[in-house]
Amino acid sequence: MNWLGLLGLASLIAAAGARDVKIERNSSALQFEYQWDAEAAAIPALNRKLRSRADAAYREALKFAREDQASARKDKRPFHRHSFGVNWEAVGQTARLLSIGAEMESFTGGAHPNHNVDAELWDRRLGRQITVPSLFIRASSFTASTRTAYCKALDKERLARRNGERIDGPFDECPKYGELAIVPRDREPDGRFEEIDFIAAPYTAGPYVEGEYGIALPVTRQILAAMKPIYRSSFEAQRQ
Question: How is 93-150 classified by DSSP, letter by letter?
Answer without folding.
Answer: E-SSEEEEEEEEEEE-SSSS-EEEEEEEEEETTTTEEE-SGGGBSSHHHHHHHHHHHH
